[in-house]
Design brief:
The structure holds 3 protein chains of 3 kinds. Chain B is mainly α. Helix content of chain B is 77%, strand content 0%. The radius of gyration of chain C is 27 Å and the shape is globular. Classes of the chains: A alpha/beta, B mainly alpha, C mainly alpha. Chains in contact: A-B, A-C, B-C.
């Protein structure tokens, strides 16, 4: 196996608000190897966008971050801020959700590229800048004739492709894509996904694909990490996870997918918890139909029930950590329709 | 989606739109000047002449004809720039506008420079260093400047710099000697002095210019500070600003190139809006400093019920306002490519 | 009443039979929610608003109790015994702010001037809102020719220098109404009508095509109900800010009119701008008290009003509002992860 290009351990990102700290990311660990696409999937508000921004260092004021982000051989969080920022762009790049507003409306496309390239490779000649920019754009299907146009002259899908080209022109080793196709229609989405797939083939780029769309994950990702309430509850190869989900949350998610063979609608009762006051023990236990007594009491310890799979669920042990009687089913009141933990 | 970034098309369209506005303005002035005071002759000389003489003058001037006929005559006159002669001192109104208008132009031009430097400069600083002492100081400065009537500032300036420190002259456009000896070519004395290479006259003119233009400029600048600051704050939150940071663009450049520039786009519109304030403020400044501008003349003629003069001045002012707002719109389109339609 | 749009009220007490009461209570609740950010805001923006309110209230009190507070009448130039005051006397015990060229007491004129200013501003606010808001509402909702015509008019009015406009109107009105508070107020109010018109009209237009308005129309709700429910709330939030800022501007316009001589005549009432005009010639002689105090009064009151408006804007405007942030304390990491590399025990 290749050594991972990005290695995250115990990452925590907590927001400061008037109500108290919101634990958007609360102890996340994963690895990314070159050429692999890891899908990070979860409901709205589970912290996946925060995780992406935390990795990039784009957090708002008043946010605290802790843990380790190992890029190649450095721990980014242990570096002084200036060096942390230097990684942004040439090493780790980000593609955002709404392409419509991500380009400076007063700058032409070629100026965007020139700015990006000159910031990180100041010795490039104008000709080289032009060549590389056109090359990156050409890879996205944008013709050179449009190089000098303004952002408002492009459609949403094309702007997203320009954003991807801008991210790739520096040839980063890691790309974080935060819901890159959510704002686009299905046909354009397919194109973008195709482009992202080419990335790993041609450049060995590692891609962290953040999305709430399980279909995209199934199609485009090698591995998938399922996130709930700021934690990763299950992680494994996407094919395996989809075929044999281990965590009750993953099972419920997959069970709620609508396809041609769906006969009844199934949803997960309840709502995601308030992250400023998460429930004790396993965060999913209030909504879990397989919850046990221990689940409400202690946080689950990560286990590896299958090769290449990580699960955080008491159903998989470790048995010696469960107190006697802990495996009894958990008795709770009926969850009301609009109940929040 | 057909989008032509043609500046020329925009200019043509916008100019055509200005014409109805102009017509409305002319009509309103016409009606105002006929409605309340009655006809200009009676209003100005009503008590001073015997009735027969009054009637004769009215007839000569054509004020006893039907309103519609007068209106057509009026429009013809405006089109040929024939604004008549003042009742009070028998000057052709066009001469009044040319001579005194030039003085006002000189004053407002330099005032605008002061306003831009002070206002935009401090506004950008306040926004960039939000909630620091610089920000609060700048904002308070702006508010107090706006709150101080220009004639009060003028009063204070005359007291301090004129009387107590005796650094600068407090009234008039020139000292009497220079006023008599300086050749007028354009009526804009600064330019005239330069044309003649009359350096001592230039110095005299500039010294007289400092107090009025700085006082007026500061008051207008106070408004700029607030507007620029708010614009900058909004711009800094923009998506493209975040995206630029994600590409590793250095923070100073993010602020100066992306945020400042985008924040200033509406400033051009704001400058256009404050132009109207500028004209109003000019009237007050001219009264305070005995500046022989068009505002002072307007007041003088108004006091003497000289409606022909007043009508001419107001019409020309209106036309200038329309032209300036047209110019501002075109400037806006040149700066912001999204506006051109 | 048209209650198709109202959701069934939450039953509060079994005695609740009155239809209107729950509606009113919810509206109060909505008002409170609208102003909630005021309570959240901490520190500077809140302080700014309170300082502004303090100053404004002080002036209002001064205006109300002018006759009690001021040592002399605003046009009084001699004592009760008939002894004339000294002209242009420097500040002294009998005349704390000195006297001006008309031998009247500067302090009294400043105090009475606040009464004039408040009267004029209140009257003009009333008139301009009374004309501008309904016009904007109707124009925005009905659109079409009416809207386009009004829009062109209002834009033209906005573009024209407001002071010149006010001068002309004051001039014309003075024939019928004289040179008092009413003329000045009316002249000033016409200048601000377009602003209220625009604010309401733009908001009505922006929500006119929203789906919930369409749904309301489809359900048969009458236009007035729709406007009241969706438009008024937002307008109520915006209008105080605009009103305070306009009030500040109105005081400056009043003073400007007074300065030029088109405002309120000195026999009718005391007015700050007029006093400063008289004081300009004093500057050459080094007499500073006749102009300084009226000018400071203007600066203070306008600043107070502007602080209120700006402060409110800072707090209520969602775009630039700053959410209150508590600094975050991360507790130290716990060990025990099933990862090949155990976490180190360090903290934040």
């Amino acid at each position: 196996m290749n050594p991972p290009v990005l290695s995250v351990r115990d990452l925590r990102v907590w927001y400061g608000t008037a109500r108290g700290a919101v634990r958007a990311v609360d102890g996340v660990s994963f690895d990314l190897t070159p050429g692999e696409t890891l899908g990070l999937v979860g409901e709205s508000g589970c912290g996946k966008s925060t995780l992406g921004r935390g990795l990039m260092g784009l957090l708002p004021e008043g946010t605290a971050i802790d843990g380790e982000i190992h890029y190649e051989d450095r721990d980014l969080l242990a570096l002084p801020p200036k060096q942390q920022r230097s990684v942004r762009g040439p090493d780790i790049a980000m593609i955002f959700q709404e392409p419509m507003t991500r380009l400076d409306p007063l700058m032409r496309i070629d100026d965007h590229f020139a700015e990006t390239l000159k910031t990180h490779e100041p010795d490039l000649s104008a000709q080289e800048i032009r060549t590389r920019s056109l090359e990156a754009l050409g890879g996205m299907g944008i013709p050179p004739t449009r190089f000098r146009q303004y952002p408002h002259e492009f459609s949403g899908g094309m702007r997203q492709r320009i954003m991807i080209a801008l991210a790739l022109v520096l040839r980063p080793r890691v790309v974080i894509a935060d819901e890159p196709t959510t704002a686009l229609d299905v046909l354009v989405e397919a194109q973008i996904l195709g482009i992202l797939a080419d990335l790993r083939r041609n450049f060995d780029t590692a891609l962290l694909l953040i999305t709430h769309n399980l279909g995209i994950v199934a199609e485009a990702c090698d591995r998938v990490a399922v996130m709930y309430a700021g934690r990763i509850v299950e992680e494994g190869s996407s094919r395996d996870v989809f075929r044999e989900p281990q965590h009750p949350y993953t099972q419920a998610l997959l069970g709620s997918i609508i396809s041609l063979s769906t006969t009844e609608l199934r949803s997960i009762p309840g709502a995601p918890p308030d992250l400023s006051m998460p429930p004790p023990g396993c965060r999913f236990h209030p909504r879990c139909d397989q919850a046990m007594v221990v689940c409400a009491d202690r946080e689950p310890i990560e286990e590896r029930p299958l090769p290449g799979r990580r699960v955080s669920c008491w159903r998989y042990g470790p048995d010696e950590e469960i107190p006697p009687g802990g495996t009894e089913p958990l008795v709770r009141e009926e969850i009301a329709v609009a109940d929040e933990a | 989606m057909k989008r032509s970034s043609s500046l020329r098309g925009y200019v043509i369209t916008r100019t055509l739109l200005a014409i109805p506005m102009l017509l409305i303005l002319l009509t309103v002035v016409f009606l105002l000047m006929r409605v309340a005071p009655g006809d200009p002759i009676s209003a100005a000389l009503g008590g001073k002449l015997p009735a027969a003489e009054l009637a004769r003058r009215k007839h000569d001037a054509g004020y006893d004809r039907p309103l519609a006929v007068q209106y057509v005559e009026y429009l013809k006159d405006v089109a040929t720039l024939n604004f008549g002669t003042t009742i009070l001192d028998n000057r052709p109104v066009t001469q009044v506008i040319a001579q005194n208008g030039a003085a006002t132009l000189e004053l407002t031009f330099f005032a605008m420079i002061v306003a831009m430097v002070a206002g935009v400069g401090i506004g950008l600083l306040a926004g960039a260093y939000r909630d620091t002492a610089i920000d609060l100081g700048g904002r308070l400065f702006g508010i107090v400047l706006y709150a101080a009537p220009v004639f009060f500032l003028g009063f204070l300036a005359q007291l301090t710099f004129g009387k107590w420190l005796d650094w600068l002259p407090t009234s008039g456009q020139t000292s009497p000697v220079v006023g008599a000896t300086l050749q007028t070519h354009t009526n804009i004395l600064v330019i005239d002095a330069i044309i003649d290479r009359n350096w001592s006259a230039l110095q005299d003119v500039l010294r007289h210019l400092i107090m009025p233009s700085v006082v007026l400029g500061l008051v207008i600048g106070g408004i700029f500070i607030r507007l620029v600051r708010v614009n900058l704050l909004q711009t800094m939150k923009g998506d493209y600003v975040e995206a630029a940071r994600a590409r590793g663009v250095k923070e100073p450049r993010v602020v100066y190139k992306h945020a400042f520039k985008n924040a200033l786009v509406p400033v051009i519109t704001i400058m256009g809006l404050t132009f109207a304030l500028l004209l109003g403020g000019a009237v007050l400044t001219e009264e305070t400093f005995n500046w022989p501008g068009i505002g002072a003349e307007l007041v003088r003629y108004l006091d003497n019920r000289d409606y022909i003069a007043v009508q001419g001045i107001v019409v020309v002012t209106g036309i200038i306002v329309v032209i300036v707002s047209l110019a501002i719109d075109i400037l806006n389109a040149w700066v912001d490519p999204r506006i051109r339609y | 009443m048209a209650s198709q749009l109202e959701t069934p009220p939450v039953p509060s007490s079994p005695q609740e039979l009155d239809d209107l009461a729950p509606m009113q209570r919810r509206r109060l609740g909505a008002l409170r929610r609208m102003w909630a950010p005021m309570h959240d805001a901490k520190g500077m923006p809140k302080a700014i608003v309170w300082v502004g309110i303090g100053i404004t209230v002080a002036f209002i009190l001064m205006a109300i109790f002018a006759t009690q507070i001021a040592p002399y009448a605003f046009d009084q130039y001699k004592t009760a015994e008939g002894v004339r005051f000294i002209k242009q006397q420097a500040p002294s015990a009998q005349h704390l702010f000195g006297t001006n060229v008309m031998s009247t007491d500067v302090l009294s004129r400043v105090i009475f001037g606040s009464r004039t200013a408040i009267e004029v501003v209140l009257l003009s606010l009333f008139v301009s809102m009374g004309i501008g808001l309904p016009l904007g509402l109707i124009s925005g909702y009905h659109g079409g020719k009416l809207d386009r015509t009004l829009l062109v008019f209002m834009d033209a009015m906005l573009a024209f220098p407001s002071l010149l406009f006010a001068i002309v109107i004051a001039f014309l009105l003075s024939k019928t109404f004289g040179h008092g508070v009413v003329t000045a107020a009316l002249a000033i109010s016409i200048v601000y009508v377009p602003q209220y018109f625009r604010v309401v009209r733009n908001h009505v237009i922006s929500i006119r095509e929203e789906s919930y308005v369409e749904a309301a129309r489809a359900m048969g709700a009458r236009p007035w109900t729709i406007m009241r429910r969706y438009v008024l709330q937002n307008v109520i939030q915006n209008v105080p800010i605009i009103a305070t800022l306009n009030a500040a501007d109105a005081i400056l316009t009043l003073a400007a009119l007074g300065f030029l001589g088109y405002g309120i005549q000195p026999t009718e009432a005391a007015e700050w701008g007029y006093d400063i005009q008289r004081a300009i010639s004093d500057a050459g002689a080094g007499i500073w008290w006749t102009g300084l105090f009226p000018g400071l009064a203007i600066v203070l009151l306008v600043t107070g009003l502007t602080l209120v408006g700006e402060g409110l804007n800072d707090v209520l405007n969602p775009v630039i509002r700053k959410r209150p942030i508590e600094p975050v304390e991360l507790p130290p990491r716990e060990g025990a992860e099933a990862e090949p590399e155990p976490g180190d025990e360090d903290q934040t």
